[in-house]
Design goal:
23% of the residues lie in helices and 11% in strands. By secondary structure, it is of the alpha+beta class.
């Protein structure tokens, strides 16, 4: 099943006091609630090439061979500079394999003033 919802003015004028979250999302939500009512909940299978990593007590998913994004809450990019500070063993093992420096300490560049 594929469901799309579009909310807007037919004359191309901007919507007033309405966004996707306040306009289309409630319609989509209500439709989906009815469409899947009574169906069993199924786990979404993790596609090949996706790595599940437990960070900070929750499961995170990354493309195989790719470092987590810099914006990630636990910022593993900083951990690449010194893996001895990484307490989470699963994260440490993953970083040892995937850091650009392969887990060896490296100098952190000094920011320019």
């Amino acid at each position: 099943m594929v469901v799309g919802v579009w909310v807007g003015n037919s004359d191309n004028t901007p919507m007033v006091h309405s966004t996707g979250i306040t306009g289309a999302a409630p319609i989509w939500h209500d439709f989906m609630e009815k469409a899947v009512a009574g169906r069993p909940v199924r786990d979404f299978p993790v596609p090949p090439g996706i790595v599940k990593l437990r960070i900070g007590g929750k499961d995170e998913f990354f493309a195989e061979g790719q470092l987590p994004r810099k914006e990630h809450n636990d910022n593993p990019f900083k951990a690449c500079a010194d893996l001895s500070k990484v307490k989470d063993q699963e994260l440490r093992k993953w970083l040892e394999q995937n850091c650009p420096n392969k887990g060896k300490p490296q100098a952190t560049p000094t920011p320019k003033p």
